[in-house]
């Protein structure tokens, strides 16, 4: 049909070198201020920074649908 675009004509992902993520200081003043507002206690703070305890439930990604 005229006026219909073909599917799959877009560019694919490039397979070049992956860029390394810059090292982030989790003890910087900006990070500490952010943590102050999002963490409720020490255990929460450690969990948000990636230090989980054995047997901890895995965090769900994304928003829960209501």
TrEMBL record:
Region: Disordered, residue numbers: 1-24
Compositional bias of kind Basic residues: 9-20
Record-linked InterPro entries: SMKR1 (IPR037760)
Record protein name field: Small lysine rich protein 1
């Amino acid at each position: 049909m005229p006026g219909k675009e073909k599917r799959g004509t877009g560019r694919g992902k490039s397979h070049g070198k992956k860029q390394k993520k810059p090292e982030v200081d989790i003890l910087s003043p900006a990070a500490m201020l952010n943590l102050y507002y999002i963490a409720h206690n020490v255990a929460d703070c450690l969990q948000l920074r990636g230090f989980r305890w054995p047997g901890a439930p895995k965090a769900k990604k994304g928003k829960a649908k209501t």
